[in-house]
Design a protein that fits this description.
Blueprint (H helix, E strand, L loop, with lengths): L4 H21 L5 H26 L9 H22 L6 H31 L1
Length: 125
């Protein structure tokens, strides 16, 4: 699992960036404490998604695959993140759910979609 740490870190940074953008957009105060409060539900979902994918596909796990890794990580980040936000008394308006789903999808699936493109470019060089 150690060899996958850089990819988990990429996902975690992207989740934190998503949360930071949202907090900045809404001009919310208490930068670090607020960012931690906003991020933890999604980071928890991210870790659960990674753990589930690794457990299910242990023999053929690949952190950079769109399917299954990217899809499972993305959906668990959004779904578990939203459930934990509700349980912790944070808001989950419909528009936020849509935006979070789309942005986290672009972030968590986007870099994975670029990996084979970059590999092809490097192979041609």
């Amino acid at each position: 699992m150690k060899k996958y740490a850089p990819f988990l870190l990429i996902d975690a940074v992207l989740v934190i960036v998503f949360c930071a953008i949202g907090r900045r957009t809404h001009e919310e105060a208490n930068a670090l404490a607020g960012l931690a409060k906003t991020s933890w539900p999604f980071l928890t979902g991210l870790v659960i998604g990674w753990s589930a994918t690794f457990a299910l596909y242990r023999d053929k796990f690949d952190a950079v695959l769109l399917l299954p890794t990217g899809i499972v990580v993305w959906l668990s980040t959004v779904i578990i993140g939203m459930v934990l936000r509700v349980l912790s008394g944070q808001g989950t308006q419909f528009s936020f759910i849509v935006v979070a789903t789309l942005v986290l999808g672009a972030f968590l699936l986007g870099w994975r979609a670029l990996v084979p493109v970059i590999a092809k470019i490097r192979a041609r060089s």
